[in-house]
Amino acid sequence: MASITIRNLDDQIKERLRIEAALNGHSMEEEARLILRRALRKPAQHQGLASRIRARFAETGGIELELPTRDERVRTVGFDE
């Protein structure tokens, strides 16, 4: 098993960890391990922002937008002036 050291941990965070550990009957190390396991059990999100937004609002059915047709020809820009 690997070990890690966490430096520069806020005193308030350490105190909350100590209290949670005591309430749950664990050592601070065990409580930290449990917190890390729970946090990392969630699947990583490999989707981009637009895909995540679309998935979140997919239940609403979405909307269809009418896109204008592009009949105009491309205009060239002149820098002659």
TrEMBL record:
Biological process (GO) annotations held by this record are: regulation of DNA-templated transcription
Where the record annotates domain Antitoxin FitA-like ribbon-helix-helix, the positions are 2-40
Q: Name one Pfam family in it.
A: FitA-like_RHH
Q: Which InterPro entries match?
A: Arc_rbn_hlx_hlx (IPR013321), FitA-like_RHH (IPR053853), Ribbon_hlx_hlx (IPR010985)
Name this polypeptide is given: Plasmid stabilization protein
Q: What is the lineage of its organism?
A: Bacteria, Pseudomonadati, Pseudomonadota, Gammaproteobacteria, Pseudomonadales
